[in-house]
Amino acid sequence: MTISQMLLPEFDQEMANTRKLLERVPEDKWDYKPHTKSMPLGRLAAHVAELPFWAKHTLSVESLDIKPGEQPFTVTSKRELLEAFDKNATEAREALAKASDADMAKTWTLSFSGKPVFSMPRSAVLRGSVMNHLIHHRAQLGVYLRLNDVAIPGMYGPSADEAKFWEAGASAENEKKKLVRDRLAGLGYA
User: Residue 123 class from Cβ within 10 Å (0-12 exposed, 13-18 middle, 19+ buried)?
Assistant: First the structure.
């Protein structure tokens, strides 16, 4: 099994989870900031939507040098946000599926104004600076949404907003058990 084949199932799951959260972003809260040092909700959502592009970029070139004054990726609507995410996730998946183990072993470098920040194999960049970075900011976005009373979808199981579904299932199961106990008791098997 290649490195790409090992990463693709996780990539697919994380992209599906990310899409579910981005679908909940309210356009009327685009400028919301939980703290003065926090980025606005719209900017954070745009960053989450752009992060899959970094996978494609990582596999396409061997370095990135960020310059002062470069402007961040921005969007102005939820439609634009979701379209950007879908495009980035699709292109990233295609690049990841095509990558050989030799491609994954190549060193990739992030620099800021010509000063190296880190250099590591592309496979490590994909896990750390792309996937983990995406999950980190997605979690931040979830907090922003929670603070604005937006229902959070489950990522790795049900969320607190989905707990009623599970409670209902547990209640129904408990009712079945009670019916069986009552029936057995009625038959003298208590």
Answer: buried
